[in-house]
Amino acid sequence: MATRIYFVKIAGCFNAKSVMIQFKEMKVKSLMETKRRDNEIMTILSKAEVEKVISILSEVYPLADCELDYKSSFQLLIAVMLSAQTTDKMVNKVTDELFKDYPDLETMLTIDEDELQRILKKVGMYKTKAKNLMALCRMLQSDFNGEVPGTLEELVRLPGVGRKTANVVLSNAFDQPAIAVDTHVFRVANRIGLTCEKDVYKTEISLMAQLPKNQWSSMHHTLIWHGRRQCYARKPLCETCRLKSLCKAYPIT
Ligand code: SF4
Predict the structure, then answer these.
(1) Which residues contact 137 (CB under 8 A, 6 or more apart)?
(2) CB 3.0–4.6 Å: which of 75, 81, 82, 126 could bond 70 by disulfide?
(3) For 107-150, how does the pLDDT look when each residue is reduced to its tens digit (9 = 90+)?
(4) Is any ligand 1 atom within 6 A of the Cβ of residue 231?
(5) Does any ligand 1 atom lie closer than 6 A to the CB of residue 237?
């Protein structure tokens, strides 16, 4: 019996030890993986190259700014919310009509849903957007004293508002450093090599690490402008691109 207990103790010790060893190995492996990933990110473009990209883009697009028309943080919030899956040009057409009679929260709270759907018809997903817009207005009134909130956490609580919309509002209406990753920022930043990520959220976090904080908002605009004017999704104009000597994706044919 004593021998059996002793054997069980030894076996127990052995198991505990091997579990510890396995645990340590896993920890080292995961640290190495993180390091490898960090190094990959760091070697995408060097710090000096990132600075060159920033300088070229700001030279090429000195006037890069938000292309949505708005006169208040409320109008900006609505316009960005409506811009999902459509163009800024189309949103501007629609908001031009919408904001004529409903320029602020007070008036927007009086809008009839059918009337709102009629106005929004051209922006796509108009029924969902109309519903969200009305719910958003009610929440602004009930939870935020009728004001557009100025933090990411509060903004993303609003119906139809995700991180992208919230970041655009923070950066343009509240002058806070933020990188809103839309389809253009995602595509262009990954092509150039400012980041190497597979999803929008990781791209945002990675760009925040790669770019100087005081450049977040302006880079958001210049990357969008580059995506709309040169680095098209289908046929980017690589041969005439000022970034071609730095771009990791060059040439895309
Ligand atoms: S070289 Fe081509 S892929 Fe790279 S940023 Fe310019 S247009 Fe885009």
Answers:
(1) 105, 108, 109
(2) 75
(3) 999 999 999 999 999 999 999 999 999 999 999 999 999 999 99
(4) yes
(5) yes
Q: Looking at ligand 1, which residue's alpha carbon is closest to its atom 8?
A: 231
CATH top class, domain 46-253: mainly alpha
Each domain of the chain, given as residue ranges in start order, spans: 2-44, 46-253
Pair of tokens at residue 74: 């409320």
pLDDT digits (tens, 9 = 90+) for 154-193: 999 999 999 999 999 999 999 999 999 999 999 999 999 9
Find, among 102, 144, 140, the residue nearest to 119 by Cα.
Answer: 102
237 Cα: distance to centroid of ligand 1 (angstroms): 7
d(CA 58, CA 60): 6
For residue 155, give the nearest of 21, 171, 19 by alpha carbon.
171
- Is the Cβ–Cβ distance between 167 and 180 less than 8 Å? yes
Q: Is the dihedral of CA 78, 80, 81, 82 positive or negative?
A: positive
Contact between 185 and 203 (Cβ < 8 Å)? yes
Q: Is the CB of 249 under 6 A from ligand 1?
A: yes
